[in-house]
């Protein structure tokens, strides 16, 4: 059997080529992350995904430096946090991220949520939403592109209505929308909309629930144990996790598997291009089963998610 492989890069509207597989850095402790980033780059990753709220941008940048690979060959994504949505704070937040990363530009800068919140001195989110339109915050992010601090800007965790509002009120269109996506959250209608307007989707949490603390609130079986996923793993001689990563790539998304374990980091690069029948087999096996694992509305104080009842 000849195995096809998905595209290695996504061409964004700017003409920049974003690597289609990135190392996710959420919940990674700084010291472990530095080692993970350096190792990931060593074994072939060229896209590292961070965020201000992760608290590890400095460690991410140090991992890049320890890798010994020229910065121009590495794609860095990071994100603007909710407490810096005031237009006057946006440029300062961008420069702070650059300083922590030790870089002179960011390849892709995302608005983490379309919600502005206040914070306390310990940087813990208060459940207080500020009346700052995300469209105003976006205009300040556009200024960062024009100042050469950022090459591409995008969004994360937006609803369709919010995407539409921003899309119709901006100088620079979002290049990427990063959102939770896996077989229990395919968001088919929303994905179709993205394709229609030409907005690329990056999938995070492609393996579904991998957090043991969620087990008591998750009635669904782990997606890696799904019969269709395991059958495809056997068919292609890859792991169930690699099937799920391959699924996102095969459906046109870029994807951000997360790990600090060297063996898993390397394993996650073993991807294949699934056929339409392969994809259908997973969809059929999860029909009517829906779950979201990254809903932090209570912490943020803003109901940002729509689509949980997305039709099959």
UniProtKB/TrEMBL annotation:
Keywords: Oxidoreductase. One of its GO terms (molecular function) is oxidoreductase activity, acting on the CH-OH group of donors, NAD or NADP as acceptor. Transmembrane segments: none annotated. Gene3D superfamilies: NADP-dependent oxidoreductase domain. InterPro entries: AKR (IPR020471), Aldo/ket_reductase_CS (IPR018170), NAD(P)_OxRdtase_dom_sf (IPR036812), NADP_OxRdtase_dom (IPR023210). Residues 21-283 form the NADP-dependent oxidoreductase domain. Substrate binds at residue 112. The active site is at 54 (proton donor). It comes from the Eukaryota. The keyword Oxidoreductase applies. CDD domains: AKR_AKR1-5-like. The keyword Oxidoreductase applies. Pfam families: Aldo_ket_red. The record marks 79 as: Lowers pKa of active site Tyr. PANTHER family: ALDO/KETO REDUCTASE. This is NADP-dependent oxidoreductase domain-containing protein.
């Amino acid at each position: 059997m000849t195995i096809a492989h998905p595209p290695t890069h996504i061409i964004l509207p700017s003409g920049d080529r974003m690597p289609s597989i990135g190392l996710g850095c959420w919940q990674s402790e700084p010291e472990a992350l530095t080692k993970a980033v350096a190792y990931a780059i060593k074994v072939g990753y060229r896209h590292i995904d961070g965020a201000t709220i992760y608290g590890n941008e400095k460690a991410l940048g140090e991992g890049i430096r320890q890798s010994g690979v020229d910065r121009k060959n590495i794609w860095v994504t990071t994100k603007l946090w909710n407490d810096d949505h005031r237009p006057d704070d946006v440029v300062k937040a961008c420069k702070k991220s650059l300083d922590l990363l030790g870089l002179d530009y960011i390849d892709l800068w995302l608005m983490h949520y379309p919600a502005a919140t206040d914070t306390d001195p310990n940087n813990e989110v208060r459940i207080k939403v500020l009346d700052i339109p995300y469209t105003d915050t976006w205009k300040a992010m556009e200024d960062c592109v024009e100042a050469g601090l950022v090459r591409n800007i995008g969004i994360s965790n937006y609803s369709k209505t919010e995407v539409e509002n921003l899309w119709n009120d901006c100088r620079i269109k979002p290049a990427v929308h990063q959102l939770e996506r896996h077989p229990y959250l395919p968001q088919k209608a929303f994905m179709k909309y993205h394709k229609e307007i030409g907005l690329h989707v990056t999938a995070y949490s492609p393996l579904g629930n991998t957090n043991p603390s969620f087990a008591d609130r998750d009635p669904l079986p782990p997606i890696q144990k799904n019969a269709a996923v395991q059958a495809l793993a056997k068919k292609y001689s890859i792991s169930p996790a690699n099937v799920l990563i391959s699924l996102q790539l095969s459906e046109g998304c870029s994807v951000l598997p997360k790990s600090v374990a060297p063996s898993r980091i390397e394993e996650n690069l073993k991807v294949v291009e699934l056929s339409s029948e392969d994809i259908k087999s997973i969809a059929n096996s999860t029909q009517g089963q829906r779950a979201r694992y990254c809903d932090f509305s209570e912490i943020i104080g803003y109901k940002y998610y729509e689509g949980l009842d997305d039709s099959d």
